[in-house]
Amino acid sequence: MQPKASVSVAKVSEIATHWQVTAETARNILNANFIIPASKTPYRYRWRDIWTLEGVGNVPPHMEDEWKKPLKSITDILKDFPYLETRALRSRAQKGKLPGLKIGKQWRFHEVAILQITRYG
Asked: Which of 33, 89, 91, 119 is deepest in the core (most CB within 10 A)?
């Protein structure tokens, strides 16, 4: 019998830091998207559910730390990658070609996803 894979979970405060929002906003986003907690005392959510909400899909275990890093706004991304265009990032995100999370009017992205599109298109 194979050992059961551990389920990576996060508290609301960790998710809020990841999304760069307040804990209340993170809670509202989780509730609005019907994300069910893995445990209730304290509330902890599965990272794979968070990543699915962000459009990521499966994250290999060896890459989890990279995908848990705080998301970056378009402004932050353009500081590191000035050759990218705001319109192109938004367009890719809206089409589902770039994993990201839209919070209000702002898109937030994983740096690792940006690195992938800059390397592979």
From this structure: 89
**Phi and psi, residue 34, nearest 5°:** 55, 40
List, in sequence order, every residue forming a beta bridge with 109; answer none if it has no partner. Answer: 72, 100
Tally Cβ neighbours within 10 Å of residue 114.
20
Q: What is the DSSP string of 49-102?
A: HHHHHTT-----GGGHHHHHSPPEEHHHHHHH-TTS-HHHHHHHHHTTSS-EEE
Residue 18 lies in a domain: yes
pTM greater than 0.85: yes
Q: For residue 55, which of 10, 8, 107 has the smallest C-alpha distance?
A: 107
How many domains is the chain built from? 2
pLDDT digits (tens, 9 = 90+) for 33-80: 999 999 988 899 999 999 999 999 889 999 999 999 999 999 999 999
Phi and psi at 45, nearest 5°, equal: -120, 145
Specify whether 50 is located in the same domain as 16.
yes
